[in-house]
Amino acid sequence: DDRVVPVDSNGFKEYDTLDALHMDKMMVEVYSWRRDPPSFLRQRGLMPKDSPVDNEVYVLIVEGFLIFNHRPLNELFDRRYFLEIPYDTCKKRRSSRVYSPPDPPGYFDEYVWPMYLKNRREMESMTSEIVYLDGLKSEEEVLVVVYEDICQEIDRLQGLS
Q: For 107, left (φ over 0), alpha (ψ -120 to 50), or beta?
């Protein structure tokens, strides 16, 4: 709810904080999936009711810009990927998006980028084993890296490698 998002001393909405996100709701969903992936998927219409589940491997991908900063969630991950892009690319991509409400003048330089740097330092101080991905590469190139890594992790967890 935009009405409850805190405002900083410059009058900028503080969207880039854990307090602005519903991490409790995300945790409920992740725990629900962890308890019983087939049931979780069926309840959401993502898996046929008669689909077999024997020997299936289920992979949950959690995406978000502060997921590694929320310790209870971060501790559940087997693999962590962080997409890096430089300042100029980030600013250009951000300026091409349409937000409601729109970013006020100076928002990127005075709030978004400083919060990115702050949150990244915090993430790196509490999280290890992050695979840093080059956000300047094509989506396909990035996805291939992640896919191959996840396949290797599945094999490892199944004792195949």
A: alpha
